[in-house]
Amino acid sequence: MSRWKFVGRTDELNRLLAAVTGEAGRGLFFSGSAGIGKSRLLREGVATLPSDRYAIWSIAASATTAALPFGGLVQVLPAEQPQGLSPAGILRWALDVLQQQAAGRRIVLAIDDAHLLDPPSAALVHLVARTENATVVGTLRDGEQIPLPIRALWTDDLVEHVELTPMPPAETAGLLAEILGGPVDAGSADRLGRLSSGNPLLLRELVHAATGSEELKRTYGIWKWTGRLELAPNLTDLIDTRVGQLTDGVRAVGELVAFGEPLGLHLLNQAADQADVEMAEERGLITVMQHDRRTNVRLAHPLYGEVLRRRCPVSRTRRLQARLAELLEQVGKRRRDDLLRVAVWRLDSGTAQDPALLVDAAVQAFTRYDVPLATRLARAALDADGGSDAAELLATILMFADRPDEAIDVLDAVTPEPDDERRLCRWLTVRGMVSYWGLSQESTVEEIASRAEQISDSAGRARVHAFEAIMRLHRLDTTAAVRLSQRVLDRPAAGVAARELARSTIAYVQAARGELTRSGAAIAQVHSAAASWRTDMPYLQLALELARGTRLMLTCDLAGIDAIVADEFADLAGAGDFRLGTGYLAILQAYAARLRGQSDTAMRTSLGACAVLATSRVYAGLAQAERAQSAALRGDATQAAAAMAEADRTHAPGMAVLYPWLEQARGATLATSGDLPGAVKHLGDLVDRLRADNFAGHEVHVLHDLVRLDQASMAVGPTCSDGGRRTVAQRLAELSERVDGVLPPLLARHGRAAATDSTTDLLAVADDYAALELTVFAAEATAQAAQRLRRQQSAAANDARERLAGLLGRCDLIRTPALNAGVPVLTEREWQVARLAAHGAPSRAIAERLYLSARTVENHLQRIYSKLGVTGRTELWAALRSIPGHEGGDVG
Ligand SMILES: Nc1ncnc2c1ncn2[C@@H]1O[C@H](COP(=O)(O)OP(=O)(O)OP(=O)(O)O)[C@@H](O)[C@H]1O
Ligand SMILES: [Mg+2]
């Protein structure tokens, strides 16, 4: 803490206080160059907040905390973090902790140097900013890379972002007097003020440099500076010179803090001479502060750390880090973070020799989803003779980092002895996972199956069987998958992770078969047991997410999708580099946007999913299929075809169970390219295949795709006992009795209304779709009604068109075959005339504007009316707006 008073900055201070205490509760971030006064301003502002109304956490991110997951928030989070949480779970837990401690007061997070936050901390800060009853304020240094969740704070409008400008001359003069502890002669103040360019730190360093010299003298109580500097010196150079002049002992103190901050005072006192520690504090190099019953030491300014670390030779750096690790080990690791800190120091100093420590630390980094750090630690553990535990951990982490080949090499180097069954089971499953999903080796299933038979330990066997089952599910061997999973569940010896994995497999199959209620119950069960399986089998999360996502998509539960996306903070997770599951959540998000007609979001999100999943052999094909669907929704045949080709190229045979989504997308792609017969044939075949696979949950959707292509009366499926074949509408009606939920009966009603040309029913179905936010389906059913009414030359056609225009108005650009069907084709000229007329221009005005005769305009209008099936100008507006892609808005 600086010894001098705070000077000036009144407007900025008020602005900061208003940001916290104001009605909107929108936070504020100050940006600015190094030393301009951001941290001090933040500290002063926060210090004036009354603690009875605000629960305030002040966080100083630093280069050392940036290396640890949640390192930036050690001062905020309780020492003990619950085990077995997902990334989202950790974030939620942290938020709950803050809420509890706030006890009803408004939460204020003040983050100094937010650009140095580690990714999970940054994600949490973003989450807090989004919370009601919380405000985030902070500082950022110019020119630094800013973590995405922090940048998103102002792009999402959660905080204001203000550039902190240099101090005006009057304020630098005041500051100078504070620093020197007495009045300063006006000329000196003016010169030093200009040399510092209004930068307080530079001013302070200038004074420091001159202190004790002839240049800076106090005469009759007035300070006078006679230095000869003409140009403003560089701040870093100045600090560099100062650091260079420190005694060895004081510099050693600075260095220990630079590599270890925040560092406990007791540790520092053990590592360095107490007199030097005191001198370092005296000299303003370090500051000592009390936090959470600990006395911590930090550098007085981050720039000192930057200079100290840069000046420190590699060999010395390593020695310091090893010393820090030793010290912390000696006093005993008190917080969970201490373990990670020690491990990272050991790693960085090349003294990592304790495999148990490294494995523990790697597990911790991995459960915090810091994949790069977890990889380094696990590899070090293996190198330190960590044996099979280290190898399995490293292989798992490598698999999630899309490096399956390396993972296999690691595993094959530690093949277990056949009689060590427990180990063998774990090894087999990890290896199986890497080889099946990572390397797409389908023969893995048979290998695993035959090895499982040789295992006598019942629990171990159950674990292997649960893996075999989910592999079989993925390659579409559904019956065997269910049978095996059931066996695992029936076996009392099976462990929690094996059971819940088996349950996820069954939940997936239930969803695909249309048993959506039972599937939902199973998913809830797996979810609620998460704390008991996550540490043992973190990747079970993916199986759970796949089952849950599939079920939500099949029920078209858009609110449910919103909820899990919000719950898992998908966008945040992505920004925080929690890759696990992020891509899959993006697919779900794109799907929900697509069904709502938000084709811009659908396109953007599905492209994002493709990017995240590009290197994954698991969901890449699914992401491309979703992108094809989004493109098809917009009528973009070229992109749809390109995405479909990518889907085929990237889709792994080991993910065959996802075929319904890919083939549905292929249908949409064909339809959008104008090949309706091809699309219809393809979807008809798909219905047959789904029926053979007993995937009724999927089949209703494909049947509905046929209804959307106006094929409700088409025959599908096998010949029945009555000698005839069912129509699409009939099959939908049949399935609506078997597939759970409110959607199938609605789809069936749509089919029947389309087959019987019942326009009233089509419009009623559309209303029900709209109520479920299935806006595209609603618009299509309305378009089908409008088309039929126009054919019947019914007066109600105009009303239907109005409704269609209203629905399309809620969507981004959407252009599907159902919406295009029966849409009249106007010539370029007719469009011009029609738009002007719809905007109320009289024929004469139109004629003048288009250089036509009034008579020609009249002729055009008559043709337009008859093409659109309207009686006059009053209906023109709605008719034009009901044509997809032509909101009728722009004239010309
Ligand atoms: N208004 C002020 N009144 C008194 N002292 C100030 C004022 N502004 C800054 N200082 C002092 O100047 C020094 C540099 O300020 P500060 O640490 O806030 O800079 P910063 O902008 O946070 O720099 P960085 O980007 O490097 O973190 C500190 O010692 C601080 O106490
Ligand atoms: Mg600062």
From TrEMBL:
GO molecular-function annotation terms? DNA binding
Q: Matching SUPFAM superfamilies, A to Z?
A: C-terminal effector domain of the bipartite response regulators, P-loop containing nucleoside triphosphate hydrolases
Q: What keywords are annotated for this sequence in UniProt?
A: DNA-binding, Transcription, Transcription regulation
GO biological process annotation, one example: regulation of DNA-templated transcription
The record's section on PROSITE patterns has: HTH_LUXR_1, HTH_LUXR_2
Keyword match Transcription: yes
- What is the official name of this protein in its record? LuxR family transcriptional regulator
Q: Which organism is it from?
A: Micromonospora orduensis
